[in-house]
C-alpha cells in the first residue's frame, strides 16, 4: 500500500469505522489524501487547530507545554517558575534537551525545576502572596538570574490569582524583569496557543527594551530554534560562516538580552514558523524587519535556504554563501553516497509537532526515502497549505491523529519507519516498526545544518537497518530465522 | 561495520574549535555575567552561608523529588487486567504522565484524557467525561476504566460519581463496566498518594460490585492464599522477585495491583494495549485470603486501612525489603501469614548473598552515603546501608511525612553507622546540593534527577528509584529480596571499584581487587 489515492481513501474510512458516530464524523474532517487539486489550490486545508475528541488518546499537550516547555524554558539566564502544583514542572524538566552554555544553577537555569508547589491552602487562599515570597527567594538563591518568568498552570487561572500585579510589584522591588505568562493548560486546544501566549509576553515585556551598542548591515536573528541537541549551534555556524552576524538566538541557548535587542536586526530568519511566527510578524509591523522562513534539514533544503538568505544581502554575502555550500558539498555527497543505498525507497510515516513533518521531508528525500503519510499534532491552516505542495499525490495527511489511527495506518501501510515522540516510541518497537523520536532526536542530534545532516543520516540508517528488527519473531524451537536477523 | 565517515555527535562536535569560537562570539549579545562574577557566585553557592539561606527559604521549591497524584493513579490502573486509565481534566497532563512513565520504563503507557478546555472550565466537564467514556470504550475495548482527576477538574469541583452515573444512564457505557474513580488533586500529596487512592478505589469498587461477603481465611473461590501489594513500584523486576519468593513457598497468592506486565511486555511484532495485570475477578476473592502482605506502607496507607477495616484481614506491611535483615523479615512474614515453613532454596540463596556481602564489605565499610527517594524506598536503602557498614549521612525525602521521619530516625539511631545521619522531609534536591557540598559523602543513591547535584558535588550516583531516565534496563532487575540485594551490592561495589581505577595514577591500577 503506498500512494494510491482511492485505496488510501478507503483505508481511512475503514479505520474510522471503529469510532462512535459523533467522533467518526469529526475525525473524518481531519484526514485528506493529497491530490492535484489540493496541491494547486493554495488555500485548501484540512480541518485543524480544533479540539481533540475526549477519550481518544491524542498526542497533544497543553498551553503550558507550549509556553514553558518550548518558548520560555530554554531562555537560560532567567528562572522560569512553574506556578501551580508540582507535576507540570516535574514532567517538563530537562526533557526537551535545549542545550545551553553556562553553569547550571548559577548563570544558566534551563535544566531546573523551579515550582511554587501549590498545596490545598494555596488553592483556597490564592497563591499571590506566596509568589511574592518565591520571587524574593529566587533573587536570594540565584543572584545572577537576569529575570523571572511566571508560567501559570491550570489552577492559577481557575482561582483568579493576579500574577500580573505580583509581577509588576516584584519587578520594581527586585530590579529585574518579571514576566507573567498566562499559559494555563486548559487554554486552547493544544500546545499551539501556549506558543502564542508566550510570544505575546515576549512582545509586551521585552521586545525593543534594550539597545545594541553597534549595529551592522549583516545583523540577523535566528527565531524558532530551540537548540535541541544543539540544532541552533549547527545552524548558526553556517550563517556566521557566510558573513552574517547573529545578534539573537530565540530561544535555545537564548538570553534575556537577546530577546530585548532583537529588534535591531536587519532580517529575521524563522525556523519553527508554527511556534514563533507571531514574533516575526510583530517585528515586521513594529520595526519593519523583513523575515524569511528557512529550513536547515538536509543538504538540498539547507543550500536552498542559504541561497535564499544570501539573496537578501549583497554580493559579498552571496559569494561567501556559495563558498560555504561548496565547502560542505563533498562532505554531504559522501554522506549520501554511504547512506542512500541503504535507505533508498524506504517508506516513512511522520507525526511531529506543528511543523517538523514538513521541514524534515527534504532530509528524507535527500536519502531517497519516501514519506507516505504525515501530518501534525497542532498545526494551523497555513501549515497545511504549505505542506500539500511539498508532497506527492496520494500521500495521506492527518491532523491531530489519535494513537489508534496512527497504529492502524502504520501497519496497513507497512511503513519502514515511524517518526514521532516518546509516547509513541515503544508501541512501534513492540510492533517491530523501526522508530525514531523526532521531537528530541532520540537523545542524539543535532539534526540541523550540514553537521546535523551527517548525524541524521547515520541515525536513520541505524534505525531502519538494525538487525534487531529481525529478531522479533522466533523461528523453530525459539531460534531466530537467519534472513530476518540480517545475518 | 566500520564507520569511515567521521560523524561526531553532540558530545564531540561542540568541543571542536569552530563551535568553541562560536560560543565565545555569542557572548557579545548575551550581556553575560563576567567570568569572575560567575566564579564568585559558584563559590558562594558552595558556602555554609548559602546553605543556611537555602534551608531558610519558605516558599520556593527547586528540583523537588516528587511527581503529582494522577501519575500514581495511572500506574495503579495499569496494575489490573484490561484496564484503561482515564484522566479527567486538561489533556496536557495525560501527555506528561504517559511520557514520564515511558521515559522510565522504556515502554508504552496507554491512557486517555477527557481533553477539557476553557468551556469545560466554565460549564464543568460532564459532557467531556461522557463522550470520552463512550469513545474510549469503543476504541480500546477495556474491561474496566479507571478515572482519576487532574487539578483542573478538582478546582472546578467536578462530581465524578454523578458524571459516571449519568454516563451509564445515557448509555455511553454499560452497567456492567466497572468504573472506579479517584480524586487525585495535584496540589495535595504526591504520586504515591494518587497510587493509593486509585488502588483503594479499584479494590473497593470491584469488591462492592461482586456481592462477595469477606470471610478472611475461608479461601473461598481460590483456596487459601495471600494478597500481596507492591505499591508504587518502579521496578518490574521486583514483581518477578516476589513471584520467585512466593513460588519457593509454594503458596497461592494474588497481587493487588501488578503493572509489571504492562511495563515489561515482549516485542513480538504485535502491540496490544493490555498486558497482564491482576485479574478483575480475583480482586473480590482476595477478601477471603488469609491476610495481606504489603511491601510498601507509605504509598498504600488508605488501601491497607480499607483492607483491615472492610475485609477484616490481617495485614503486614513493610517498606522495600532491601538487604538481608529486611528480606529475612519479609520471608518470616510470609511464613507466619501462611503457616508454611521457610523453603530451603531461599535459605541457600540468602547464604550466597551473605557470602557476596562478606567478599565486598571492605570496599563498602565506612562509605558515607546520601539518599534520595520515595519514603518506602528510603527505608529500604537505609537498612541496606546500615547492615553493609555504609554510613547514611544525608537523607532527603520530598514527599515524606512525620511518620516516615520518625521511622527513619529510629532505624538510624539503632545503629552506630547511623549516628551522623539527618533526615529531611519536604526538602528538595537543591537542598541536597548544599548538603553534599557542605558535608561531603562518598556515594549518593537516587533517581536520575539527582545527577545534577551529584555532579556539582563530585559524588558518584547509584541510580535507584523513580524516575531513572538516563540509564537502560535497571528497572528490569530487582532491588528487593536476596537477589535484589545482590544486584544493588554489585552496582555499588563496582561503582566504587570503577572510581578507584579512574582515580588511579598508574602504580595503583591494580589487577586484582
Q: Secondary-structure map with pairings?
A:
The complex is a heterodimer of chains A (487) and B (513).
Chain A: H1 5-16, H2 21-28, E1 31-33, H3 36-41, H4 63-72, E2 78-83, H5 87-91, E3 114-115, H6 120-125, H7 128-141, E4 147-152, H8 154-158, H9 163-174, E5 178-181, H10 191-205, E6 219-225, H11 231-241, E7 245-251, H12 256-261, E8 267-270, H13 273-287, E9 291-293, H14 299-310, H15 315-343, E10 347-350, H16 356-366, E11 370-376, H17 381-387, E12 396-399, H18 403-413, E13 417-420, H19 422-431, E14 435-437, H20 449-464, H21 482-485
Parallel strand pairs in A: 2-3, 2-4, 4-5, 6-7, 6-8, 8-9, 10-11, 10-13, 11-12, 13-14
Antiparallel strand pairs in A: 1-12
Helix pairs in contact in A: 1-18, 4-10, 7-9, 10-13, 11-20, 14-15, 15-20
Chain B: H1 10-13, H2 17-30, H3 35-44, H4 48-56, E1 61-62, H5 69-77, E2 83-88, H6 91-105, E3 112-113, H7 118-123, H8 126-140, E4 144-149, H9 151-156, H10 160-169, E5 181-182, H11 191-210, E6 225-229, H12 236-249, E7 252-255, H13 282-285, E8 291-294, H14 301-310, E9 314-317, H15 324-338, H16 344-364, E10 368-372, H17 375-388, E11 391-397, H18 402-413, E12 422-425, H19 429-438, E13 443-446, H20 451-457, E14 461-463, H21 481-503
Parallel strand pairs in B: 2-3, 2-4, 4-5, 6-7, 6-8, 8-9, 10-11, 10-13, 11-12, 13-14
Q: What report would you give on this structure?
A:
The complex is a heterodimer of chains A (487) and B (513). With 487 residues, chain A is α/β, with parallel strands linked by helices. Chain A is built from 21 helices and 14 strands. Chain A folds into three domains: 5-58 and 341-484, Rossmann fold (3-Layer(aba) Sandwich), CATH 3.40.50.1980; 65-188, Nitrogenase molybdenum iron protein domain (Rossmann fold); 219-324, Rossmann fold (3-Layer(aba) Sandwich). The mean pLDDT of chain A is 95. Chain B has three domains: 69-210, 3-Layer(aba) Sandwich (Rossmann fold); 226-344, Rossmann fold, CATH 3.40.50.1980; 353-503, 3-Layer(aba) Sandwich (Rossmann fold). Chain B has helices at 10-13, 17-30, 35-44, 48-56, 69-77, 91-105, 118-123, 126-140, 151-156, 160-169, 191-210, 236-249, 282-285, 301-310, 324-338, 344-364, 375-388, 402-413, 429-438, 451-457, 481-503; strands at residues 61-62, 83-88, 112-113, 144-149, 181-182, 225-229, 252-255, 291-294, 314-317, 368-372, 391-397, 422-425, 443-446, 461-463. In chain B, α20 (451-457) links the parallel β13 (443-446) and β14. In chain B, α19 (429-438) runs parallel beside α20 (451-457). The longest helix of chain B has 23 residues, at 481-503. Chain B is globular. The two termini of chain B are 35 Å apart. The mean pLDDT of chain B is 96. The chains are: A alpha/beta (487), B alpha/beta (513). At the A-B interface, α4, α5, β3, α6 and α7 of A face α2, α3, β1, α6 and β3 of B. β3 (114-115) of chain A pairs antiparallel with β1 (61-62) of chain B, so a sheet runs across the interface.
Amino acid at each position: 500500500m503506498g500512494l494510491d489515492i482511492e485505496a488510501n481513501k478507503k483505508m481511512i474510512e475503514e479505520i474510522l469505522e471503529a469510532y462512535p458516530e459523533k467522533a467518526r464524523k469529526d475525525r473524518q474532517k481531519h484526514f485528506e489524501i493529497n491530490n492535484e487539486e489540493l496541491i494547486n489550490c493554495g488555500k485548501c486545508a484540512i480541518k485543524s487547530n480544533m479540539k481533540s475528541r475526549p477519550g481518544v488518546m491524542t498526542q497533544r499537550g497543553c498551553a503550558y507545554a507550549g509556553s514553558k516547555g518550548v518558548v520560555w524554558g530554554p531562555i537560560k539566564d532567567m528562572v522560569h517558575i512553574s506556578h501551580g502544583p508540582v507535576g507540570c514542572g516535574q514532567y517538563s524538566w530537562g526533557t526537551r534537551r535545549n542545550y545551553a552554555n553556562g553553569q547550571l544553577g548559577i548563570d544558566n537555569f534551563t535544566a531546573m525545576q523551579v515550582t511554587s508547589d501549590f498545596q490545598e491552602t494555596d488553592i483556597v487562599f490564592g497563591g499571590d502572596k506566596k509568589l511574592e515570597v518565591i520571587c524574593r527567594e529566587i533573587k536570594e538563591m540565584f543572584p545572577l538570574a537576569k529575570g523571572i518568568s511566571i508560567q501559570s498552570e491550570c489552577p492559577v487561572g481557575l482561582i483568579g490569582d493576579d500574577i500580573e500585579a505580583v509581577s509588576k510589584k516584584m519587578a520594581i522591588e527586585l530590579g529585574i524583569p518579571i514576566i507573567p505568562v498566562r499559559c494555563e493548560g486548559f487554554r486552547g486546544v493544544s500546545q499551539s496557543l501556549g506558543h502564542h501566549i508566550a510570544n505575546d509576553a515576549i512582545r509586551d515585556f521585552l521586545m525593543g527594551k534594550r539597545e545594541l551598542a553597534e549595529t551592522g548591515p549583516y545583523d540577523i536573528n535566528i527565531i524558532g530554534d530551540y537548540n535541541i541537541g544543539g540544532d541552533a549551534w549547527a545552524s548558526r555556524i553556517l550563517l556566521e560562516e557566510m558573513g552574517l552576524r547573529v545578534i539573537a538566538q530565540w530561544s535555545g541557548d537564548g538570553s534575556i538580552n537577546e530577546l530585548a535587542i532583537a529588534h535591531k536586526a536587519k532580517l529575521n530568519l524563522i525556523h519553527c514558523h508554527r511556534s514563533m511566527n507571531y514574533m516575526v510578524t510583530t517585528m515586521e509591523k513594529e520595526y519593519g524587519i523583513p523575515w524569511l522562513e528557512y529550513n536547515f534539514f538536509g543538504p538540498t533544503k539547507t543550500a536552498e535556504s542559504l541561497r535564499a538568505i544570501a539573496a537578501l544581502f549583497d554580493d559579498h554575502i552571496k559569494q561567501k554563501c556559495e563558498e560555504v555550500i561548496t565547502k560542505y558539498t563533498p562532505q554531504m555527497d559522501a554522506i549520501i553516497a554511504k547512506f542512500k543505498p541503504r535507505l533508498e525507497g524506504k517508506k516513512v510515516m511522520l507525526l511531529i509537532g506543528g511543523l517538523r513533518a514538513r521541514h524534515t521531508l527534504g532530509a528524507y528525500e535527500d536519502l531517497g526515502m519516501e514519506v507516505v503519510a504525515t501530518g501534525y499534532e497542532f498545526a494551523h491552516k497555513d501549515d497545511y497549505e504549505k505542506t500539500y505542495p511539498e508532497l506527492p499525490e496520494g500521500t495521506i495527511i492527518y491532523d491531530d491523529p489519535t494513537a489508534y489511527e496512527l497504529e492502524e495506518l502504520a501497519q496497513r501501510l507497512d511503513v519502514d519507519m515511524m517518526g514521532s515522540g516518546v509516547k509513541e516510541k515503544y508501541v512501534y518497537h513492540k510492533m517491530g516498526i523501526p522508530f525514531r523520536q523526532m521531537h528530541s532526536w532520540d537523545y542524539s542530534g543535532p539534526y540541523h545544518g550540514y553537521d546535523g545532516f551527517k548525524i541524521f543520516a547515520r541515525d536513520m540508517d541505524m534505525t531502519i537497518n538494525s538487525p534487531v528488527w529481525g529478531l522479533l519473531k522466533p523461528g523453530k524451537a525459539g531460534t531466530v530465522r537467519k534472513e530476518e536477523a540480517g545475518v | 561495520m566500520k564507520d569511515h565517515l567521521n560523524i561526531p555527535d553532540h558530545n564531540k562536535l561542540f568541543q571542536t574549535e569552530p563551535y568553541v569560537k562560536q560560543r565565545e562570539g555569542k557572548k557579545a549579545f548575551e550581556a553575560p555575567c563576567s567570568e569572575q562574577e560567575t566564579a564568585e557566585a559558584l563559590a558562594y553557592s558552595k558556602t555554609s552561608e548559602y546553605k543556611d539561606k537555602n534551608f531558610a527559604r519558605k516558599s520556593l521549591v527547586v528540583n523537588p523529588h516528587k511527581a503529582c497524584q494522577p501519575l500514581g493513579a495511572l500506574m495503579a490502573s495499569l496494575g489490573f487486567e484490561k484496564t484503561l486509565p482515564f484522566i479527567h481534566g486538561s489533556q496536557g497532563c495525560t501527555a506528561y504522565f504517559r511520557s514520564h512513565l515511558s521515559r522510565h520504563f522504556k515502554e508504552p503507557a496507554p491512557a486517555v484524557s477527557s481533553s477539557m478546555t476553557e468551556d469545560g472550565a466554565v460549564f464543568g466537564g460532564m459532557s467531556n467525561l461522557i463522550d470520552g467514556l463512550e469513545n474510549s470504550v469503543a476504541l480500546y475495548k477495556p474491561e474496566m476504566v479507571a478515572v482519576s482527576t487532574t487539578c483542573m477538574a478538582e478546582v472546578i469541583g467536578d462530581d465524578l460519581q454523578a458524571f459516571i452515573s449519568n454516563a451509564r444512564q445515557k448509555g455511553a457505557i454499560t452497567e456492567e463496566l466497572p468504573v472506579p474513580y479517584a480524586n487525585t488533586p495535584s496540589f495535595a500529596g504526591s504520586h504515591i498518594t494518587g497510587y493509593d487512592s486509585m488502588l483503594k478505589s479499584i479494590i473497593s469498587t470491584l469488591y462492592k460490585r461482586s456481592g462477595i461477603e469477606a470471610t478472611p481465611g475461608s479461601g473461598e473461590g481460590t483456596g487459601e492464599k495471600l494478597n500481596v501489594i507492591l505499591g508504587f513500584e518502579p521496578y518490574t523486576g521486583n514483581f518477578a522477585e516476589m513471584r520467585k519468593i512466593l513460588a519457593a513457598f509454594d503458596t497461592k497468592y494474588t497481587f493487588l495491583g501488578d503493572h509489571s506486565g504492562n511495563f515489561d511486555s515482549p516485542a513480538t511484532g504485535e502491540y496490544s494495549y493490555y498486558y497482564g495485570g491482576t485479574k478483575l475477578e480475583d480482586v473480590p476473592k482476595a477478601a477471603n485470603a488469609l491476610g495481606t502482605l504489603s511491601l510498601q506502607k507509605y504509598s498504600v496507607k488508605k488501601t491497607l486501612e480499607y483492607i483491615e477495616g472492610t475485609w477484616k484481614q490481617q495485614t503486614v506491611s513493610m517498606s522495600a525489603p532491601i538487604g538481608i535483615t529486611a528480606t529475612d523479615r519479609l520471608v518470616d512474614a510470609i511464613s507466619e501469614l501462611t503457616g508454611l515453613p521457610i523453603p530451603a532454596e531461599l535459605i541457600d540463596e540468602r547464604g550466597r548473598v551473605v557470602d557476596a556481602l562478606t567478599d565486598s564489605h571492605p570496599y563498602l565499610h565506612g562509605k558515607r552515603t546520601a539518599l534520595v527517594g520515595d519514603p518506602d524506598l528510603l527505608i529500604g536503602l537505609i537498612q541496606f546501608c546500615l547492615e553493609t557498614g555504609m554510613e547514611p549521612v544525608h537523607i532527603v525525602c520530598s514527599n515524606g511525612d512525620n511518620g516516615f521521619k520518625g521511622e527513619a530516625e529510629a532505624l538510624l539511631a539503632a545503629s552506630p553507622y547511623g549516628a551522623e545521619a539527618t533526615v529531611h522531609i519536604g526538602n528538595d534536591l537543591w537542598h541536597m546540593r548544599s548538603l553534599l557540598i557542605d558535608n561531603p559523602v562518598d556515594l549518593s543513591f537516587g533517581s536520575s534527577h539527582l545527577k545534577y547535584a551529584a555532579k556539582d558535588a563530585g559524588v558518584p550516583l547509584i541510580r535507584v528509584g523513580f524516575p531513572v531516565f538516563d540509564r537502560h534496563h535497571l528497572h528490569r532487575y530487582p532491588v528487593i529480596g536476596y537477589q535484589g540485594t545482590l544486584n544493588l551490592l554489585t552496582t555499588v561495589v563496582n561503582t566504587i571499584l570503577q572510581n578507584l581505577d579512574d582515580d588511579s595514577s598508574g602504580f595503583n591500577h591494580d589487577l586484582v581487587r
